[in-house]
Every structure is written in structure tokens, then in C-alpha cells.
Design goal:
mainly alpha
Length: 251
């Protein structure tokens, strides 16, 4: 639940709102409204799952499709509509993430960070290659995790998002001493710690064909550790780099 709660504030739906506001005040207001709307949706999913379980159409131990199965209990027509909406939502989400990933790789990583001047045509070509590569990796991961509970996997994704993005978002909006280096180290710490905990979790140990009892720790979701580490890292690094930040402002 912690991962879902914190991860909601780190979704692309939230992050993109910072490109459409004029000030920090508007950003805070926009963020709160978006989180409230998405949070309301998550509350509704609880009732959908409960309704599916009560109607006997959901196996709580193995089934992932509570929404469509609940709709099917009311008739084929509603089931068809819900299934179509779910399919369209999946396509929209996947395409959006692929475009965002390819854009980040082509523009931010290759052009800005690596300093390679690709030109407009080169960026488009790099973006297409990156999109294809991201899609292939996603397909491989999807096949590898076939059969796992979707909600559980969503919790992992939200935990990584919360660990990498949320500390930077919160502190940038509400703490004036936040520095660029603090944000950078926070993101790196959040990603590495979250992925590290996930890859050494009992669930992954079982996927490796090993005994769960031999896993290095008992955590299946890293949010409580990785988010805290990222937040603490941001505060410490920001406090340690205040002079650099002051020099940058003066320049």
C-alpha cells in the first residue's frame, strides 16, 4: 500500500503537469488535484475487486481480471465494453511509456548528457531505435514474469517510481534548500536501492529457482527502504552542496 500511495504521486500523469503550469504554487495545486483524482480511482478499484469476489467470479489467489470478470457477471455486452476500454487503456499506457522512454534516451541521454549533436534527423532515428529496444525489453520482461499477479507487479513499478521521482518532486516543491546535485543523487539512490531490493527479494529468489528462505531479506516491496534512502540522500547531499548552489545562483 505504501508503494501504491507514494507511486501515485510519481506517475507520468503527475509529472507531465509540471510542464503546463506557470509557478510553484500552480504546480502544487495541480499536483494535489491530480493525485486526488487518481487516488479516487484506486479507491474504486477496491470496490470492484470486492464486488467480483462477492459475486463469485474472482479467484483471489490467482485471478488478475476483477474488472472484466465482474462486468461479465452482468452480461456479455458490459463485458465487451469493459474489455475494450481495458485494451485501449493498455495500448495508450504502453505507447506513452515507450515514447517517453525513447525521447529521454535520444534527447536527454545521448544529446544532452553524452554531448553528441545528432541533429533533428539523428534524434528521430535514435528515438526510433530506442523505442524498438525498449519494446523488445518490455516483451522479454513480460514473458519472464508471465503468471505473476498484475497488482503485485504494479506495486513494484510504483515502488521504483516513488523511490526515483517522489523525493525530488516533494523537496523541490516544498524545501528551498534542494539542490540539483541532491536531486541527481536521490534519483540514482532510489533506482539502485529499489531494483536491488526487488532483485534479491524472496519472490525473485523463487523465480531464479532458489529457495525463498535463502533470500537475503524478507521484503517483497522495496518502497519503505528505497524511498527513505532516496529522501535522506537528497537532504544530505543538498545540505552539503549549498555553497555550490549559491555560486550557481550568483553566476
Amino acid at each position: 500500500m505504501l508503494a501504491l500511495f507514494l507511486g501515485t504521486a510519481s506517475l507520468p500523469h503527475i509529472l507531465i503537469r509540471y510542464y503546463t503550469v506557470k509557478s510553484q504554487k500552480d504546480a502544487r495545486k495541480s499536483t494535489i488535484i491530480a493525485i486526488a483524482a487518481i487516488g479516487g480511482f484506486y479507491v474504486l478499484t477496491l470496490f470492484m475487486g470486492l464486488g467480483a469476489a462477492v459475486n463469485g467470479v474472482l479467484d483471489v489467489e490467482s485471478s488478475n481480471m476483477s474488472g472484466p470478470l465482474l462486468a461479465k457477471a452482468f452480461g456479455v455486452g458490459l463485458f465487451s465494453i469493459i474489455s475494450a476500454i481495458a485494451f485501449a487503456t493498455i495500448l495508450g499506457t504502453v505507447s506513452g511509456l515507450i515514447v517517453a522512454s525513447s525521447g529521454a534516451i535520444a534527447h536527454d541521454l545521448i544529446d544532452r548528457y553524452m554531448g553528441k549533436d545528432l541533429g533533428d534527423a539523428g534524434k528521430v532515428r535514435a528515438g526510433k531505435i530506442a523505442a524498438f529496444a525498449v519494446g523488445v525489453v518490455a516483451i522479454i520482461l513480460g514473458i519472464s514474469f508471465k503468471g505473476m499477479n498484475v497488482s503485485f507487479l504494479v506495486g513494484w513499478a510504483f515502488a521504483v517510481a516513488a523511490s526515483a521521482n517522489l523525493p525530488a518532486i516533494l523537496m523541490k516543491l516544498f524545501w528551498k534548500k534542494t539542490t540539483a546535485k541532491g536531486i541527481a543523487w536521490s534519483i540514482v539512490t532510489g533506482i539502485i536501492s529499489a531494483l536491488g531490493i526487488i532483485l534479491t527479494s524472496p519472490t525473485m529468489w523463487d523465480r531464479y529457482g532458489l529457495d525463498k528462505a535463502d533470500a537475503p531479506h524478507l521484503l517483497d516491496n522495496p518502497a519503505i527502504i528505497s524511498f527513505t534512502l532516496a529522501l535522506v540522500t537528497l537532504v544530505i547531499v543538498s545540505l552539503a552542496t549549498q555553497k555550490d548552489n549559491e555560486k550557481l545562483v550568483e553566476a
